Amino acid sequence: MQRVQLKLYNSLSRKTEAFKPLKKGRVSIYSCGPTVYQYAHVGNLRAYLATDILRRVLEYDGLRVRHVMNITDVGHLTSDADTGEDKVEVAAKRTGRTAKEITKFYADQFVKDIRALNIELPVKFAWASRYIKEQIELVKRLEKKGYTYKTSDGIYFDTAKFKGYGKLGTSGLAGKRVSRVAHSREKKRATDFALWKLSGSKKRQQEWKSPWGVGYPGWHIECSAISTRELGQPFDIHTGGEDHILIHHNDEIAQSEAAYSKPLAHYWFHNAFMVVNKKKMAKSAGNFYTLSDLGKQGIEPIAFRYLAASSHYRQKLNFSKSALVGAQNSLNKLRVVFFQRKHRGRTSQVYRKRFLAAINSDLNMPKAIMVVWDLVKSKKPLADKQATLLNFDRVLGLGLEDYKPVTVPAKVKALVRERESAREAGDWEKADKLRAQIVRLGFAVKDMPSGSRIYGK
Ligand code: AMP
Ligand code: ZN
Predict the structure, then answer these.
(1) Bridge-based pairing state of the strands 444-448 and 451-455
(2) What is the pLDDT of residues 322-352, one digit of tens each?
(3) Fewest CB within a 10 Å sphere: which of 305, 340, 413, 438?
(4) Binding residue positions for ATP
(5) Which CATH superfamily is domain 7-271 in?
(6) 88 CA to middle of ligand 2, Å?
């Protein structure tokens, strides 16, 4: 098999680089995981899908991946500026449930969501609250090296002491972090951040003893402590959404590099936002949708996967009903190829070469998807098309292997007949509406010279 080398955009160098793992044939990846106080929205899920494509491409290229993801169950405050309350504690208070109940419930939901999206599970989900010892050790190390100072509400990292703070860029940082005067007169600089927060007079549900008093870890320290513990330092690739670049990831780099005098990760991989009418989809903005919202509209999780997997991870992805219906339609059409199952087909090397070139060019999935459709439309024997698509599906993850044609329910058949009559009468608007209804029920309809054909999920 021909060897290829992945070219990957690195947010650290701001260049597309040839990817070289630290250990031959192996790749270590750390992903900032969810904060488990709410359902994940499809914007969050886009981040995990982008990482899943990265991981699958590396595996397709023959590398062994060790992937670790944290679960933030403590310390993520409602503001990035070390003010506000812990998101989990707020949710607990609001619902009258315990912090443990909240985090367990939403972490379970998250795993269900990523399973439904056919995302390969990390080798480990590392819960922040189970790494308190490691986080305290890291803060102690930073303290010993003179990078910290104490205020009345916690231990802070002194960014002035770390040469080159802001390695991932600083533009826009001032606006993101409110001025120190606004929230804590004791904080020396707006960029300084909490490593350990003290509970003070407030009794919290999740708090631990530490050399500085009872409290809880700052949000950034968990990722540094967990990644170093599970993957070593440096490791290969750190992933997250682009909203984490300025603060969370700059801070992770500062504390880890200050502690160990070596890089935290060699490559930084950031996905662009999923947006709704040009605005970032966010829990706080209230413009978010979950997988179950999509399900109510007849869109399968895998159709959302198709949508996300066919866009480029560094381009904004617009959330729209028509894009989702389009993705569901395309997926249904792709499944048509497997309507009649053939065996002993051969992977087309011509198409595979094109596919390989696309995915290794900074995960150019729009191009890879074009190869998929060129193949589907080609004159290749059906058996070869199936074999080649199944090969590509190791990256696409659409579950084509498991696809089983289903019998078409009477309701769908009736809609198809009604649509045919509408078409015969030249009522295209009605025909389109009926098609949308059919798609919502999970079927695709294709107009052939001999009449309509229905394809199922
Ligand atoms: P959170 O649970 O808020 O920590 O976010 C989980 C992941 O989703 C992080 O990697 C975020 O950067 C990412 N993320 C949040 N909102 C979006 C969005 N609208 N589009 C893409 N990724 C997002
Ligand atoms: Zn993180």
Answers:
(1) antiparallel
(2) 999 999 999 989 998 988 888 889 999 999 9
(3) 340
(4) 283
(5) HUPs (3.40.50.620)
(6) 16
